[in-house]
Amino acid sequence: MAEHLADWAADLAAGGATAKHVGHLAAAARKAFDGCGMLTLSDISESAVRRFAAGLREAADAPAALAPPLSPAGYSPGELARAFGVSSQAIAAMVKRRGLPVAGNGKARRIPVETAAALAAGRGTGLSARTANRYQGAVKQFRAWAVRDRRLLCNPLAGLAASDAEADRRVVFATMAAAELRLLFDTARASAVAFRGLTGADRAALYTLALYTAFRPVELRRLTPADFDLAGGVPFVRLDGKRTKNGKACDQALPPEVAAAMSDYLDGRPLGEPVWGGTWHEKAADMTRLDLTAAGLPVVRPGPDGQALTVGFYSIRHSAGLLAEANGATVREVMVLMRHSDPRLTLKTYGKLDLAGRAATVAKLPTFAAGPVVDRLGQNSATTWPEPGQVAHDGPGRPGSGAANGASAGGPESPQIVGENDDPGRGGTAEEAAPGGSRTPNLRFRRPWGGRVKTQGFVAKTARLGVAGIPRRALIYRVLAWPPADSLTPSE
Q1: Alpha-helical segments (H) within 331-483
Q2: CA–CA separation, 251 vs 438, rounded Å?
Q3: Distances 125 to 28, 118, 170, 276 between C-alpha atoms, Å
Q4: How many C-alpha atoms does 457 have within 13 Å on its Cβ side?
Q5: Residue 348 half-sphere exposure, CB side, CA atoms within 13 Å?
Q6: How many C-beta atoms surround the C-beta of residue 370 within 10 A?
Q7: Which pLDDT tens digit goes with each residue over 272-296?
Q8: Which residue among 234, 300, 305, 436 is buried most deeply as judged by most CB within 10 Å?
Q9: How far is it, in rounded angstroms, from Cα 201 to Cα 453?
Q10: In sequence order, what DSSP letters do the residues of 435-451 get, joined into one string?
């Protein structure tokens, strides 16, 4: 199996895959084969791979119980590392990623009992469905390559289904408001701390370009000054297909004020060297967390559905799509900005509202209090209930309006019933028909009550004509004059 894996990795590299991508795939496939005890190609089976993936999601690596800390201040990183069976660096990374509190620095660093309990609870959940799917995907790619290379006659893993990653998402990025983004940019610009070669001014320019282009960290790291065209009528930044995630070239326009700021920032830099070179993109979350903490912004915030939301570098990308939509951009325009090929991805992943966003959405609804309906736009409209037999809608050319029935101002209107097939655009009722024409009235609502009355068409018709402020069931009952008017309340 090791020889086949080496040949597969070499073929991936020859096909243009990066060394990092090849290494991740080969390592995942090797771990899956070792976990399943597979030594040859004939040993691979769908059931064995499925059991291996299910075992990754089990909580087998959770410690049974944490012993009390040796110090009253909490656990040392070494104590917690030995209890979890990991390195001290892994403990530090978990604490940073979750934004949990710690005390002290260096050898004096102590991890409070509450932080240790939160880390233990997280390790007790096993790997996420998305991580387990990566192992399955690596094995399936290897088997498909073996079939194409005539090393196997068929692919026995063709029917292996992946787990639902959306139902088990461990990291969900939060969006940031415009004021929070501005504070983050200003804090980074004033910072005297460098992160992997990037000064505070470098990070501020990087964050700004990330917001207005929605580029990913690895794409931003590959930009050079030659990719910027800031002197033309429409300033833009260009990425060719070799440097984008989807393999397609992209020209992203920039606002004039952003183009002017980038022109000043890029002045004097070598054209062929990366603007933001180095390895910062490997720890982009840690870099953003550094500036978020300095700005006093939370790294983890509560989500609307009970799940914690992470604020990181990708929050800037998420915020770009949501802020563009909030300021009038269409779904198609946001798709172009995010470079998505499917609007469902745009709406599902990048169109989620946090609790504040949902509160702003429901605030746009009218307020239903005791009395008239209060429109949040400043208009008041009292709810008018139709009399029995009277049509509920009242518009030009519609049954029940003075224009359609010739009712004088202040006089009674002629009651009309809109049947399922009464469409004013196709002839409407007898009053709306051509001169001399006649039409048999629809008697569905005029026959005596005693059997089932089909109301689906009527409900659909009234909904299309726009009945404002009147529940559908109450509208139907009022037209049928049943139940009696004094026994029907608005709540019904």
Answers
A1: 331-338, 343-349, 355-362, 402-405, 456-465, 472-480
A2: 63
A3: 20, 12, 10, 37
A4: 12
A5: 7
A6: 4
A7: 899 999 999 999 999 999 999 999 9
A8: 300
A9: 72
A10: TT---PPP-TTTSPSSS
